Write the structure tokens for this entry.
Amino acid sequence: MKLLHFALPVLGGYGETFVGRSLADQLTAGGVQNHFVTTQAVESLFGEGVYPYDVIDADPERSVHEVVERVMTEVRPDAIVLADYTNYWGHMVRNNAAEDPWFIEKYGVPLLPIDMWEWENTRFAYDFCGRGWGREYDRHILDMDVHLRPVPVAHVDPGPSGKGYPYRLTAPEPAADERTRAAIFAEFGLSPEDRLVMIPVSGWQQPKEVTRQTTDMMVRLGERVPELLVHYLNQLPDRTHVLIVGPVPEPFAKFPADRLHVLGPCAPDRYQRLLASADLLLSLSMSAVTLARAVLMGTPGMLLTNRFTVTGRDEVSEVDRALGGLSPVVRSWLEEVAPVDPFLHWPKGLFHFVEALTKDNGYLSALARAELFDETAAVETMHGILYEPAAREKLAEAQSAYVRAVDALPSTPDVLRAAMTKLGLKTS
């Protein structure tokens, strides 16, 4: 069987690309051949030669249609994987295929969309910080009989329509052994008694100006939320080190330089070792792929989000009452930075968009969680995971219970075979 994967992250997202690569990795083990169509923004992730690939935007003189026509003729796939559905549609709309983003259906090859958001349960629009509900996304996925759903973040069940095919996000990744962890710690000058907090940051989380994809509030939150992170991290013991992978938000200049470590984009195997060696993975995005990987490999993961709408001083007082008191620093920050919209996906928002995804989702039980504006809870939760064995063990037990549920899913090759059978295709 041969699959053609369209991995076209609109904002150059490495997470979405990892999801597509991870699916191919699992299917390769089951004898499937994989070919990718990707973009220049993430081409480096395919440079090691594991999979043949084409770059859809490599030649500005060639249209999307021309590139796809050539690839389809050369590869002759049995099915097309949209890795993922959202980014495929977004890329086509933005790059000369807006009049017919689904022109690939003319080839008569079945489509297998990766459905990271469980689209059938949404209103097909994002709610953005500073903008409210955006334009409606394409609903064509509702016409497709198979929705491949990576777990986490998706639920482990097929959903109300029965079209969902949940599969493990990634093959089991090894937790760090003592030698690997010691080598990582030695690289950064840490002692065995030190603790390492890993914070991945993507470029889209640090927008510098208002564009078609951003708002003034997103820019402001991208700049200012890290101030609270630094304030919280500075309250942890001096043995706490922070590793940022990606662009460094400016407020981290106020974190002790000798305990701040910075890396750019890493090779996949190195990134895996870093993630496995961390004592805590800290994220402000519920859908972050790195957070999901951390949970699956046993690295403690913590999620900071905001459920409050704050437009002025009156709402600051409401937040104060709801949280049982705001710290002076957080109160001052809110009064200065407001307005602030709720978000589960910093700094974009998507608070209401993912409500159905969060409902009865066991993934959330495997995470440590705190409200961003609850300073006491945020600091105490981080401290507990890093320095209190009982707190760390409690989270580890919750993670293990969730991972057992994920491991009970059929193997990913078996999921693909079931999906192909659903579409009336032979799987051998």
